[in-house]
Design goal:
This protein is an all-alpha fold and about 140 residues long. It has a single domain (about 20-140), classed as Up-down Bundle (Four Helix Bundle (Hemerythrin (Met), subunit A)), CATH 1.20.120. It contains 5 helices and no strands.
C-alpha cells in the first residue's frame, strides 16, 4: 500500500477553519484507524501470525500518517495543548514499536498484547484526545 501524503491543510491567520481543517481530525486516516480497531476488537479468533503482521503494518502506516499530519497542524492552528498531544503521539508510536518487536520475537500468541497495548490506547486517543481538539476548533473558530 503506498504511503499517503501527511501534509496538513494550510492555516490562514484570522480566518475560520475550512472544512478541510477538520478533515485532519475526522478524515479518512482517522476513520480508517477506527474501522481497523473496531474490526480487530470484534475478531472472535486471533489471526495467524502472518495475518497479524500484515494487519500491524497497515495499522502502523495509518497511525503514522494521521499523527504526522495532526501534530504539524495542531501547532499551526495554535492549539494550546499541541505539545502534550504530540507527546502522546510519540508515546503511542514508541509503544507500538516495542510491542511489534515483542510480538515478532515471541513464541506465544501476541493478539492480546496487540489489542491491550496498542488498539485500546489508540482508540482512546482518537475518540477522547482528538475530540478535545474538535471542541477547541468549534469554540475558537466560529463566528
Amino acid at each position: 500500500m503506498p504511503r499517503h501524503s501527511a501534509t496538513p491543510p494550510p492555516v490562514t491567520a484570522g480566518r475560520p477553519p475550512r472544512h478541510s481543517h477538520l478533515n485532519v481530525l475526522t478524515g479518512y486516516n482517522r476513520q480508517r484507524l477506527l474501522r481497523l480497531i473496531d474490526s480487530m476488537l470484534a475478531t472472535e479468533h486471533p489471526p495467524a501470525r502472518s495475518t497479524l503482521s500484515e494487519m500491524m503494518s497497515e495499522f502502523f502506516e495509518h497511525a503514522i500518517v494521521h499523527f504526522e499530519a495532526e501534530s504539524t497542524w495542531l501547532t499551526e492552528i495554535g492549539y494550546p495543548d499541541a505539545g502534550h498531544h504530540s507527546q502522546e503521539h510519540q508515546s503511542l508510536v514508541e509503544t507500538f514499536s516495542d510491542v511489534c518487536f515483542l510480538i515478532m520475537e515471541s513464541h506465544e500468541a501476541p493478539w492480546h498484547a496487540f489489542l491491550d497495548q496498542i488498539c485500546i490506547p489508540l482508540y482512546h486517543h482518537l475518540t477522547e484526545e482528538d475530540h478535545k481538539v474538535i471542541t477547541f476548533l468549534k469554540a475558537h473558530h466560529t463566528a
